[in-house]
Automatic annotation (TrEMBL):
The record marks F274 as: Important for dimerization. This is Diaminopimelate epimerase. The gene is dapF. One of its GO terms (molecular function) is diaminopimelate epimerase activity. Homodimer. It catalyses: (2S,6S)-2,6-diaminopimelate = meso-2,6-diaminopimelate. It comes from Arenimonas malthae CC-JY-1. It comes from the Bacteria. Its EC number is 5.1.1.7. One of its GO terms (cellular component) is cytosol. It is found in: Cytoplasm. SUPFAM superfamilies: Diaminopimelate epimerase-like. Gene3D superfamilies: Diaminopimelate Epimerase, Chain A, domain 1. Belongs to the diaminopimelate epimerase family.
Amino acid sequence: MSAGKPLRFSKMHGAGNDFVVLDLRGGRPLPSPALARALGDRHTGVGFDQLLTIEDPVAAGCVARYRILNADGSAAGQCGNGARCVAAWLQRDGAAPGGHFRLDSPAGVIDVQALGQGRYSLAMGLPKFAPAALPLHAPAEAVAYELPAGGQRLRFGAVSMGNPHAVVEVPDAAAADVATLGPALQARPEFPEGVNVGFAQVLASDRIALRVFERGAGETLACGSGACAAVAVLVRQGRVGRHVFVALPGGTLEITWPADDAPIVMAGPTAFVFEGEFPLEQVE
Ligand SMILES: N[C@@H](CCC[C@H](N)C(=O)O)C(=O)O
């Protein structure tokens, strides 16, 4: 990034999970973690949960590649709400004509289907339950694990959606002590790369309420990969069916996992908020 020339960005959100989107196609350099943190500051910068960079694709057959930085400057392997926003951004840009296209993500190729009115459906890949996939230090794969966190023993399921998730079933998501238990489980040494912690309340076999304490961003209004992870874990525990509406504080996502050997499909909204320019002198 060169000083003197302001950085153009788009501000977007997907179900309240908010993003700054940068167009780095043509080989423009990635922002440093320091620049990401400066942009992400909600008082002195623009503010976001995740920074999304749109780049030239590496994988064949994709219209673009995206990468993800959390608000604290750390890199992430997947972002479901962000992937929908990248899809919407590319369609508006004209780079993804037609309703069906592919994105090159850090976790692999994602199939996108535009549903109209800013909604997109994405095939988010297979959930990976092997502890090494997160990674989680556990003696063996299990449908549920238990660890001490926040002064209690927390029972959770664990899965990778390209990024690591722990899912705790709670009787009342609104009353869950997300601010205490989220960081406590996230910081356990058994998760050497940290973990996104979801608190899921089963409302019916096709409906759950979910709050997610994200790695690198704290509690967000929605987490797309977290919604996929919650459904994957709860299906495996026999708690829900394979088509589930996930109500998050910022909106509802529709998650379908047709079969164990099929990718999880996530459908949900996107929104453009504003376009802007950030003066790089603030950072460099
Ligand atoms: N909000 C995202 C997930 C973003 C990455 C996550 N915080 C991590 O570090 O793995 C989503 O919608 O999936």
